[in-house]
Specification:
By secondary structure, the chain is mostly helical. 80% of the residues lie in helices and 0% in strands.
């Protein structure tokens, strides 16, 4: 017999921090590196030049993703810290006003005034700051900014994503690099979209179509540019 009080529920929101960085990193790694390879391969460049382009794209992209994620998420963390300090000050200086504010929030959510007041009082007695951060500002442990985690996750997943089209290029004949890398990149993107959707509890078909569409567009544009300027040169 299952104890209803011991039932475990899996909520995908707990994965949002690292999952967003991982999917973004891997997607960028596949798309940007494959596009660069295809763009250069569409020109008269030899295979050594194409390989150098792919390796440079992997290294530069991974470092760029790490730096960008760290700076971006650090800004979010700074904002959260400022809000936390401000809320702490307001709770200390205007406790009644903060109680009224929390009560109003619960009334807006559908509770009767008396019940909303009781809930606000009890929650503030237990942990006033946490109650206001969660219900007034929408901050929680699941959405907390983690710059280092985001930076490392993005860098590693970008490198892994970038390595896949690079590997496809290495094992392709020079004349087949464009079609082979393009097809492999779209397959990799489809798998990534499916895995990301499954991990986040989202619609798999929609995720796959979304990433492959934009990937195909990027590949087509860079191949066209490479062919155009390669012919000019």
């Amino acid at each position: 017999m299952t104890d209803k009080h011991s039932r475990f529920e899996l909520h995908f929101i707990s994965r949002i921090g690292w999952l967003r960085a991982a999917v973004l990193g891997a997607n960028d790694g596949i798309v940007s590196t494959a596009s660069l390879i295809v763009g250069v391969a569409a020109s008269p460049a030899d295979k050594a030049t194409i390989l150098l382009t792919g390796v440079a794209a992997l290294v530069a992209g991974a470092l760029s993703m790490a730096a960008g994620e760290y700076v971006s998420v650090s800004s979010q963390a700074d904002t959260e810290s400022a809000d936390l300090a401000r809320e702490t000050q307001e709770l200390r200086d205007f406790p009644q006003a903060e109680e009224d504010e929390l009560t109003h929030i619960y009334v807006e959510r559908g509770l009767e005034l008396d019940l909303a007041r009781k809930v606000a009082v009890q929650l503030m007695q237990k942990d006033a700051l946490k109650a206001h951060l969660r219900d007034e500002l929408g901050m929680s442990d699941h959405t907390e900014a983690k710059p280092v985690q985001a930076a490392v996750t993005s860098a590693v997943t970008f490198a892994v994503g970038a390595f896949l089209p690079l590997l496809a290029m290495i094992f392709s004949a020079r004349d087949l690099i464009v079609p082979v890398v393009s097809v492999c990149a779209l397959l990799f993107l489809a798998v990534l979209g499916a895995l990301g959707a499954i991990s986040g509890g989202a619609n798999v078909t929609k995720a796959v179509l979304r990433v492959t569409f934009w990937g195909a567009l990027a590949l087509a544009v860079t191949a066209g540019i490479g062919r155009l300027f390669g012919a000019v040169v």
